[in-house]
Amino acid sequence: MPARPAHATVSAGPTAPGEGPLVSPSVLQLIGNTPLVEIRRVRDGVAEGVRIFAKIEGFNPGGSVKDRPALKMIQEGIRQGRLVEGKTILDSTSGNTGIALAMIGAALGYPVELVMPANVSRERKQVVSAFGAKAIFSDPLEGSDGAIRLCRKILAENPDRYFKPDQYNNEANPLAHYETTGPEIWRQTDGRVTHFVTGIGTGGTIMGTGRYLKEQNAAIQVVAAEPEDAFHGLEGLKHMASSIVPGIFHQDELDLKLGIATDDAYDMVYRLGREEGLLVGQSCGAAHVAALRVARTLDEGTIVVLFADFGDRYLSTNLWLGWQRLT
Amino acid sequence: MTQVRVPTPLRKFTGGSEAVEAEGTDVTTVLADLDKRYPGIRERICDESGQVRRFVNIFVNGEDIRFLQHLDTPVKSGDELSIVPAIAGGR
Prior knowledge:
The complex is a heterodimer of chains A (about 325) and B (about 90).
Chain A: E1 36-38, E2 49-56, H1 67-79, E3 88-92, H2 96-108, E4 112-117, H3 122-130, E5 134-138, H4 143-157, E6 162-163, H5 172-188, E7 195-199, H6 204-216, E8 221-227, E9 256-260, H7 262-276, H8 282-295, E10 300-307
Parallel strand pairs in A: 2-10, 3-4, 3-6, 4-5, 7-8, 7-10, 8-9
Antiparallel strand pairs in A: 1-2
Chain B: E1 2-5, E2 19-22, H1 27-37, H2 42-45, E3 56-60, E4 63-64, E5 80-85
Parallel strand pairs in B: 1-5
Antiparallel strand pairs in B: 1-2, 3-4, 3-5
């Protein structure tokens, strides 16, 4: 396959709804501007005055919310001269960020290498390789922290070869959400949002979106969903107390953090598929469990819960395979 | 003795050890012996009904027990049993 030249600049980003033609000059310009959909059935015990909307991040071209920070980190890397032609994009990821980096790298002509635990879902490994990226597997028993450590080692051995976006410590990660996810939610709810709920992996989504929303209205409550225990099955989410805490994550900016049991999140995924027609990933199940817990305490409000991806990337995982107990 | 490989989040039960030993003739009895040596670890792996939790994978010599005989999968001395969470955490 002939090598494509890396472009020196990136100009891509969300456009306002209704703006511009339906033809996009680049897949990167399809990132963002994801729809909100009202959750009408899976809201048992919630008062009529409370509306719940899910932001469907699976509509991003790479299939997840991670397209936003990946694009911003690469744009910033190019702008700062840290990512130049001849360099390879390297990062540790358990999946969605890797897919986003692989897609953007392919679109811009940069090679991509990704360190991931060997137990990430088969679909994720296949998608990454379909975009031409190289996957390097770390010990599955060490989880994402093992991938972080292996990635640091690879970088230390060859620092000039790589550009490492470092999603856990790169302020461009929350900035992407401050500039896009937050304003979209504000606009899509006509400023009526009262609560924002999402899972925490790197913390980028909740930090950036939360900051923007609180600047518009300081009363907006920012709620995080995390696994209730270090030993869990919620791919993409981190149990902060037992993890390497990302540098971009600041717990004091949250109003509330709810621990979610893996079983409850899985059951919620099954319900969302069957009752709402929304097949989403397990982190979305956890986020919706958290959203309902908050919703049940309210008489009125507008809750936006972020669904980070669709569920078809998890069909080979334990969520659907083998241990499934449909409710 | 069967070598049992323990994932990071469960090493608080094993005093930080990544690999420990337990005895048994199948996965059920190995897990029971493991729990005798490291009390509390089994209930993290199995639910109240005794079934392996949905997000936990158990491998015997690298083979997923779901595709063998589940908890009845035979285990002999020298085998390696790995307990692996189905996920990775962080994105």
